[in-house]
Design brief:
Structural class: mainly beta
Largest sheet: 8 strands, antiparallel
Number of strands: 10
Order of helices and strands: EEEEEEEEEEH
Strand order of the largest sheet: 5-4-10-1-2-9-6-7
CATH superfamily: Translation factors
Strand content: over 45%
Shape: globular
Oligomer: single chain
Distance between the termini: 17 Å
CATH topology: Elongation Factor Tu (Ef-tu), domain 3
CATH class: Mainly Beta
Number of domains: 1
């Protein structure tokens, strides 16, 4: 599985379990992300995310997005998009052009 860094956690809210991620790449509902660093090392699919308190399906680079996470993350935790062999060729090609 290939991984590409798409952002970094800038804040964490414990009660709703939401990490705020400053994006350097595109992320969408259904993408598999890996959170790595500062005590975290886990993967999960994106099930919900918000930009400025509004639910969104996708978010692009230079955006801060709130992503519900399954475990605690800390400021500075790196976020990677994980792409695996189960993707079709068209999805991989689209990822090359959409970041």
């Amino acid at each position: 599985m290939a991984e590409r860094q798409i952002g970094m956690v800038t804040h964490y809210f414990g009660k709703p379990r939401v990490g705020i991620v400053a994006l350097t790449g595109r992320v969408a509902i259904g993408d598999r992300l890996r959170f790595l660093g500062h005590g975290a090392d886990f993967q999960q699919k994106v099930k919900s995310m918000q930009v400025d308190h509004a639910a969104v399906e996708t978010a692009s680079a230079r955006t801060e997005v709130g992503i519900r996470v399954g475990q605690r993350v800390r400021e500075g935790t790196e976020v990677y998009k994980v792409s695996g062999g189960s993707e079709g060729w068209f999805a991989r090609l689209r990822g090359v052009f959409t970041g």
